[in-house]
Amino acid sequence: MPEPQIRKSAIVTETIWHEGGPVAETPLRRAAAMTVIANPFAGRYVEDIQPFMEDLKPLGEQMAQDLIDALGGDPSVIEGYGKGAIVGTNGELEHGALWHAPGGYAMRAKIEKSMAIVPSTKKVGAPGARLDVPVTHANASYVRSHFDAMEVGIPDAPKADEMLLVLVMTTGPRVHNRAGGLAAQDVKGEDGLR
């Protein structure tokens, strides 16, 4: 298949100092990279869609690097991640599932401590649809302090024959984390869970 046809991309960054409690000594930073591409399968059923995952790999790598750059350029500060996709209404949910491997592995390849599976979400939606992208600790899924989500979207995307692909990275826990459980500093980093 040909390389993805990109219509537009956007990066959104947030710096969170507090959520109504004391001001954090170190604020949480999180960012989302979003890219709107043509859906090569829109409007028809195609049985063999897996080869498109290979075509998406360079895009995943670029988006992951763009996020690291947006968060200061040092991949060692990334502690959380997630991914997602919104498929335009002429596509199907399975088209968004093609983003799982190229998006997830791209982030894991660039972040040294990234044993945890990258959480994901996807849906079919019209232009302006929003998506809550789940986030977990990059090295251990059981770290409750990093359970989070980032709401994303682009006002004019995805159009019916497009897909909006998303990667999210964060630099730490929720600013007022008090839920207990495994602490980030106690992660063993052996199995992606603890």
| Cα distance spanning the termini | 39 Å
CATH superfamily: BB2672
Mean pLDDT, all residues:
97
**How much strand?**
25-35%
Domain tally: 1
Our count of helices gives 3
SS-based class: alpha+beta
Rg calc: 17 Å
**Order of helices and strands, N to C?**
EEHEHHEEEE
What is the global morphology? globular
Number of strands: 7
The CATH topology is: 60s Ribosomal Protein L30, Chain: A
What multimeric state do the chains show? single chain
- Main pleated-sheet profile: 7 strands, mixed
Description:
Strands 1, 2, 3, 4, 5, 6 and 7 form a seven-stranded mixed β-sheet that branches. This protein is of the alpha+beta class. The relative contact order is 0.23. It has one domain: BB2672 (60s Ribosomal Protein L30, Chain: A, 2-Layer Sandwich), CATH 3.30.1330. About 20% of the residues lie in helices and about 30% in strands. The model has no long low-confidence stretch (mean pLDDT about 95). Helix 1 crosses helix 3 (about 100-110).
Structure at a glance:
The protein has 194 residues and is of the alpha+beta class. It has helices at 51-70, 93-97, 100-110, and strands spanning 6-16, 28-38, 80-87, 120-124, 131-137, 148-152, 162-170. Strands 1, 2, 3, 4, 5, 6 and 7 form a seven-stranded mixed beta sheet that branches.
Write the layout of secondary structure elements.
Elements: E1 6-16, E2 28-38, H1 51-70, E3 80-87, H2 93-97, H3 100-110, E4 120-124, E5 131-137, E6 148-152, E7 162-170
Helix pairs in contact: 1-3
Key attributes of the depicted protein:
194 residues; alpha+beta; seven-stranded mixed beta sheet
